[in-house]
Amino acid sequence: MSIPDEVLDFFHNQSYLIITTIDRDGGLHNACKGLVDIDRSGKLYLLDLYSGVTYANLLNNPSISVTAVDEHRFKGYSIKGTARIVRREELEPRLVKAWEDKITSRITARVIRNITEKKGHPRHPEALLPEPKYLIVVETKAVIDLTPHHLKPPGLKAHKIGTGDENG
């Protein structure tokens, strides 16, 4: 499924995403993950730093939802799809480099924000993150616009990006 430029830009500008997977009992599991890349063809690349619950859930059931929200703009999207796991030793070097660049950017942004504003975290958590354990590749099946209909610009009120339970 092709992803519109607006959605691509939105996801690229998020510092983290919330992913939802399904456990063996049918329960939902949420976790924060960093986006490495997203392309127009509908592939999302997420590096996971741990081999925990998310990993076990995806081995059992590849269904996944990836959500990004910007509270200030009152806007968000959820991408529904299927995931596959790529082991660390099979990772493309460009994806590892992209992840390293994002971590460096996040550390830089945190340092600048700590200098110009009230200090947030006493340390730089990004610098303490472990190396990625595996890559999650998500194949997009639907893109859901989470913005309430009455808050969309007039030309977009009837615009439907994907299939699913838009706004409800």
Description:
The two termini are 22 Å apart. The protein contains three helices and six strands; from the N terminus they run αβββαββαβ. A six-stranded antiparallel barrel has the order 1-2-3-6-5-4. The longest helix has 24 residues, at 93-116. A hairpin with a 4-residue loop joins β4 and β5 (75-87). It is an alpha+beta fold and 168 residues long. It has helices at residues 5-12, 53-60, 93-116; strands at 17-22, 28-38, 43-48, 63-70, 75-87, 134-145. Mean pLDDT is 82; it is low at 156-160 and 163-168. It has a domain at 5-91 and 132-156: Pnp Oxidase, Chain A (Roll).
Key terms for this structure?
168 residues, alpha+beta, Pnp Oxidase, Chain A, 6-stranded antiparallel barrel, 6 strands, disordered C terminus
